[in-house]
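EI: anyone free to look at a 194-residue chain?
SC: sure, send it
EI:
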Amino acid sequence: MGTNFRLVWLGASLSAVGDYVIPAALALALVRATGSAGAIAFVLACTTVPRLLLLPIGGVVADRWQPRRVAMAADAVRFLAQGAVAAELIAGRFSLIDLAVAGAVSGVASAFALPTGSPMVAATVDADRRTRANALLGVSTSAARVLGPALGGAIVLTIGPGWAFAVDSVTFAVSFAVLALVKEIGRASCRERV
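SC: here you go
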């Protein structure tokens, strides 16, 4: 597997860590600020519902346009949304509406980012190595599911919730930069993506 795939893998892994840092950090931050389980449910719904509704459209966009550019655009949007929340929380301000809006924006961006993985793997890895490449991405995502919440919780409990959002924002910025290093990759046909 070549340099392009390694960069795609690194970008996807960083984005996955960013995705999984926030739910635990958000829950702890909201419990500290409001003491309300309803606030947690509201903000998580604002993140999840747009992602679920727009995921099919994200798949079409990733299939029709350059998936690397779609992933980079999604990383840029998530960087800005999570960075805005980080700045607000670090400054000591708290707004449930701001968290909900940032969650919705991040959910929309995630709906477009998630479907880009398969086309980028297909375009950067030969057909005989795709199974290994997809397995590596699967292991990375599984590790992010375990490490992300632990990292988010540790950051919230030690230095504060704003910093967890700052770390999340940085993961998307680094993912954007890494994907920018990938040489232009072509689109693989649907038959080649297996």
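EI: The radius of gyration is 17 Å.
SC: 👍
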